Amino acid sequence: MNYDKALKIRIKALPPDHPDIANTYNNIGLVQRNKGEYDLALMNYDKALKIRIKALPPDHPHIAQTYNNIANVQDDKGEYDLALMNYDKALKIRIKALPPDHPDIADTYRNMGLVHEATRAWQSALEYHNKAAGIRRKS
């Protein structure tokens, strides 16, 4: 309810492609995911992504965050191929934009490992978890 109020205010007060509007859509998506409202979450993440792609540089970490959030929902829905595709998009941006031992890179590797676990691709799961663990040890 409060994010909806904030969104209405921001839409009224800010240009349509302002990053704060994208942040609000992203936050609404987070709440919807936590409530199990996956399709609504994806809809709001998509709105956030469209704004972020317009408003931010192509390798901005917030774009990676949105791809990661979309992948989280797809993973929750059992849409593993789509989840891996979006985790990969997030990972490529994060590798370009962040230091090599950044925890967000480790999180993405971990998420990819969990998807491979869910699909019983054990060797791939182990490889991604090892990459995540290596970064975590350094950071």
TrEMBL record:
Superkingdom classification of source: Eukaryota
Subunit composition and interactions: Oligomeric complex composed of two heavy chains and two light chains.
Pfam families listed in its UniProt record: TPR_12
Segments annotated as TPR repeats: 22-55, 64-97
Family: Belongs to the kinesin light chain family.
SMART domains the UniProt entry points to: TPR
Keywords recorded for this protein, A-Z: Cytoplasm, Cytoskeleton, Microtubule, Motor protein, Repeat, TPR repeat
Main location: cytoplasm
Protein name: Kinesin light chain
Claim: Lipid metabolism is one of the keywords in the record: no
UniProt entry tagged with the keyword Chaperone: no
PROSITE patterns in the cross-refs: TPR (PS50005)
Gene Ontology CC: kinesin complex; microtubule
Subcellular location: Cytoplasm, Cytoskeleton
Its biological purpose: Kinesin is a microtubule-associated force-producing protein that play a role in organelle transport.
